[in-house]
Design brief:
Strand 4 and strand 5 form a beta hairpin. It is built from eight helices and nine strands. It folds into three domains: about 35 residues, no CATH class; about 40 residues; about 230 residues, no CATH class. It has about 350 residues and is an alpha+beta fold.
Amino acid sequence: MNRSDDSIPDEEWDRFLREAAAGTGAADAPKEPSARARMVTRRLQEQPPPEPPRAYRLAAPRRERRPWFTIIVAAVVVLAIVAFVPGPLTGLFRFGDGSTGPAAPQGPTVREPFRDSPAEDWAEGAEGIDVPAARASGGLSAAEVREALGRTRDFLVGTNLDPGVLRGERPTGALRFLDPRQRAVREYVSDAFGAPSAKNDPLRLATRFDPERFAFAGDVVKTRGGMTYRAAEGGGIDVTTDVTYVYPVVRASGGGEVVRTIVRRAVVLRWRAPGTPGAGTFQLVSYASDVTNGGCGDRKGYFSPEFGTERATVAPDDGVVIDPYDSEGTIDGHAGAQDRCASAIRS
């Protein structure tokens, strides 16, 4: 059915067209719009499109925040690189006084002679030599084993920690229990501590520094090590010791430079059981040592550490490099003698 232009008000047709466009028009909407309806439709179609929604216009400020996110990510990356590769980049982060933050390790000083060294946390003197629990073994009772272990410790102290011996004196107390039947060892001891030479070097058994050339930075020697024992053939026990000693040294003539001489010794003493020949004494079964910064060549019975540029010019004659704080491996005998010198990766 056709309707005239006057049969439907303008407001009604406008409403109808809006509902039709939104899909919500009534079911009985006119199927054939009038001329006015078609005119209104054309008028709406000719109008400019509606203004975009505000949600779309808010997208622009988000793009303005992206550079801050990028800067944060870049800063995190730079900090990560500095943490793993600090050397080449520390100059980029200097403080107002020209420093680059915390000071680098400075090495030993007279007040802190063990600074920047693993020995800084070690025990002092005899306290760093562990003595195992005693039990009966090799024909010795537990009490006798305990006595043998204590005397072994006294031997180590007497040859490596006694102040007089460190200044060149003879280790008389440490050798008082040496088996008199070990003639070759007693001859070596007599010659080495009476007239030291490259052949009879007292440093194979004891630690000594020439007091006219060297002094100690403080009165503490740091130590770490211990001993084990087992039944010996023929009765008695063999006590195996492995101890590292760290000596901070300065020039006797003065000066603030401190260097460290590090000595690792492995000595085996055999204590005989009661009722057997040599009971109550020990035999020197074996001894070996590794020494760093103790000098090379003929040292004339004393360790001879190098200072400053002296250390830079000393090179091992056999190319041996050791870690003086590594107690896991065996001792190779790099005692700094004329035919066996070594350099250290740290001091």
